[in-house]
Each structure stands twice: as structure tokens, then as C-alpha cells.
């Protein structure tokens, strides 16, 4: 699949923001005064909203995007939109009540946390529900998104606390979350990567009983939209190097650096982690093979 | 509404494509483009049509495959357009309700005014039946010429999809595949019509008819791949040997 930047930024940045809101809802972020509260909410919601706005860039008709909130009964993309809007709205309510009362509402916080997780799940299922892409159509796909989102949120919160308070009590938790995310992603990479599509040029044409099917002539001389969109092959040449970069920056470097005690390093960890996640997400798309390419001479 | 119809009509309009007859002339492709460029939706656009790297939206494409065994090779021309699946994944993924399946005849259509051009339906379709229009930025797909087949302003013989009407070899048939007694359903039964990628669980309505076994392929196949036929040969030689093999061919 073609790794479009709008989609990569959408899934990774809104995932990061939702991870922040998840821990924020659980009351895990040390908020000492109202100013910090406002600042954190702005930070978290900006990540989510910039991510969502980036997804609009992917649309042919962004002005009609509101229509995407209507089909939540069948469409994961629609559910994602509905859940994201609900999460943003309830985060604002949660923060407003907290600001005015001076006290955190446990119930509202819990709602924000659950909604954040559900939104990440729906994002993942946009891709995880597509039978046409065998690599994505795997039960672990949404868990990868959840684990990455949760550990990313923690990395940001540790950096936030480090810069405001000079220390963070979440270093152990963040390390564990990074370790879990690394494990889930590694298992996914191995399993989903091995997941063979049951579709072949033989099933695609229904001519398997006659022999082996190979493309003799394409329907046209130039690349068409389908091939442009779904026949991306560049990443497959650099998979190993890119996955090393992704794992290194997203998990390994943060896990070590969290314990370094070097303030500027810890504060810059969200950026390092995020570059790793962008690489991971780029590969998530670029490595995926779509069934339609079987009609264009590929064999998966 | 992008839920699939809860109580769909038994009527399932679709195409039956005969791979034995198709000669890959692309007439159906061209007439499809011509008709659908002038029909109700946005025109099927082309970009840089006369230069290098031209691109454009088409609703019907013909691939040509080579089918080989150890001893044979056969060319099969393979027209491909929307299969109007009973369990159409392109419909249920649509976030806006633009993509829908008609209750009354099962035709899968796109409401272009509601389409946001996200492309997810094309990702969900294993057949490559949907293409983004490069100018309008909305999803285009085969309408089964819904603006022809019910069009009483057209002479009756023209009330079939443009691809069917134009096919010079009669390789495409149109009809109700939900009716077991329809001409197309009988054709599918008689010729062993099949689904494309049944493992994708889309239950396509369109069916494909396999190429018939070619006689020269049968002969060469038997000679090279059936050891029994070879071993039984030296039994009788000369004239009676010829009679023996001639009779064997007849039966």
C-alpha cells in the first residue's frame, strides 16, 4: 500500500495524543496548578486534532468530511470519527470540571480513558478489518496500535513532568509499557508478516485448475490509480534497515534514556520516540500487499 | 446507508463473462468509458491523455493472462469490472453512506455528491473494481449501466450494459443471477461458472465461465502426461494398431 504522509501522521500523532489522554483520564499526570492542566489538555488535544486534520488532507473532498460521522453502524472509519469527536468533547468537559471544581472527576476521567482506548482501537480496525490486506487482517493489529499509543503517551508525560517538576515517578511504568509495546509489535511483525494471503493469481482469475496463471499483458501501458495506491514496492527493499530504525528509536533508545537521568535527553524523548513510530507506521503501510496486485502480475 | 440491505430482493443483476469467447479486443472497455463519460455521474476523466504517463478512471479493464502447465500454455483474456458482490465489503466500509447496494436489484452504486474521496472502499475491494476519478476526486465504479437497463427511452435491445451491447463476440451476458431459471443462471450451471477469489468471502454476483478444454491441448497433454496411454501402445502394431488407437480416440 502507498504510505501517504497524511495517513501516517494521522494514525501516529492522534495515537500519541490519545495515549496522553488515556493516562490523563486515569489521573496519572501530576497536575500541580490550573495552568498545567490547561497546558496539558492543549498539548494532548492538539496532537489528536492535528492528527485528525492531517487525515482530512487525504480526502478528495474534505469539505464533506462531516458526512463520515454517519455510518458508525458498519464502518470503522466512521466509528473512528465519532469516537475521536466524543473523546475530544469529553476531555474538554473533564478538564473544565476539574478546572472549575479544583478537583478531578473520577468518573469523567475514566470515561475519557476508555474513550481514548476505544478510539485507538477503531483507528486500527480501519486497517485491521480489511481482508484484502492479509498483513493487516490479523487479530493482533489493534493491540499493536493500543500498545504503541499507551507507551507513547507515557513517554510524553515523563518528558512533561521532567521539564516541569525536574523528575517523574512514571519512569518504571513507561519502561514496562515500552517493553510491552516492543514485544507486541515484534510478535505482530513476525506473525502478520508470515500471514500468507489465501488469494493467488490462480484464485483471482479462477483459472487455477488449468495451470499456473501469470500476467501476459497488463490492461494498459501506464500505471493506473490502483497500482499507484496499492502496488507500492519501495519499502520492501529496505525493510530490515527501516525496522531497525523503528525499533531503535521507538523503543530501545527511550528505554535506556529514561534511566539516564539526563534531563534534556528525557525531555527530547517524545521526538525520538515519535520519529521511530513514524518509521514504524510508514512500514505498516509500505510493507502491506493488497490482493488487487495479483491481477497486475504480483504473487504474494 | 452503508449497511447492506437487510431484506434484499431476490433479484441480483449481474454479468456472466465467457473466458472461452473473449478475444481481448477492449471494445467493452472503450464503450464503457464512452457511455459512462456521458452519463449521470461526473465524466470519467483522463489526465495528460495524449502525453507520457497518462492516467484516468476506467470502470472495466482487460487483463491478459498466460495459463501454463508443464506441457501446455494458453492465453486467456480476462475482462474485469465490478462484480456487484452480495457481501460487498466496499459498501460496509464507507463512512459517509455514499457507497450503497440497491435493495431492489443488488447493484452497487456510489452517490458522488456524498463521496468524500477517502478511497477506503477501493482498499476493501479485492478486485480493483473502484478507481478514484483524478479530476472529480470521487470514487467511480461500474453502475451496471443502471441508466441504460431501465431506460425506456432506449430501444429494447439497448437496455443492457454498454459492455454487453458492444461485445462483438458475445462473450458477455447480462441478466438476473438471483433467478435460477434465468438464461444467465442456466449458462452458469451448464458451463461451470465460478466466482473470483471466493476466499475473500464477498459472494460476487458476476460469474466467469472457464475456457473450454482445447483439443490440441488435450492431445498433447495425454501424450506427455499419461504414462498408461504410452505403456499400452506397443500391444499391437501396424494396421491393427492404428485401428486400435482410432477406436480408442472415438470412444
Can you tell me about this structure?
- The complex is a heterodimer of chains A (300) and B (251).
- With 300 residues, chain A is mainly alpha-helical.
- Chain A has a single domain, classed as Formate dehydrogenase/DMSO reductase fold (Up-down Bundle), CATH 1.20.1630.10.
- Chain A is built from 12 helices and 1 strand; from the N terminus they run H-H-H-H-H-H-H-E-H-H-H-H-H.
- Chain A has helices spanning 5-25, 34-57, 76-101, 106-128, 141-165, 171-194, 201-205, 225-230, 234-237, 239-257, 263-267, 269-286, and one strand at 212-217.
- In chain A, helix 1 packs antiparallel against helix 2, helix 1 (5-25) packs across helix 5 (141-165) and helix 6 (171-194) runs antiparallel to helix 10.
- The radius of gyration of chain A is 21 Å and the shape is globular.
- The mean pLDDT of chain A is 95.
- By secondary structure, chain B is α+β, with helices and mostly antiparallel strands.
- Chain B has 2 domains: 13-209, 2-Layer Sandwich (Alpha-Beta Plaits), CATH 3.30.70; 215-250, no CATH class.
- Chain B has helices at residues 27-37, 89-92, 120-124, 146-149, 162-166, 183-191, 215-225, 227-231, 238-250, and strands spanning 13-18, 46-47, 55-56, 60-68, 73-81, 99-101, 108-110, 130-132, 139-141, 172-176, 207-209.
- A 3-stranded mixed β-sheet of chain B has the order 10-1-11, covered by helices on one side. Chain B has a two-stranded antiparallel sheet with strand order 2-3.
- In chain B, strand 4 and strand 5 form a beta hairpin.
- Chain B is elongated, with a radius of gyration of 23 Å.
- Chain B starts with 12 loop residues before the first strand and ends with a helix.
- The mean pLDDT of chain B is 90.
- The chains are: A mainly alpha (300), B alpha+beta (251).
- Strand 1 of chain A pairs antiparallel with strand 4 (60-68) of chain B.
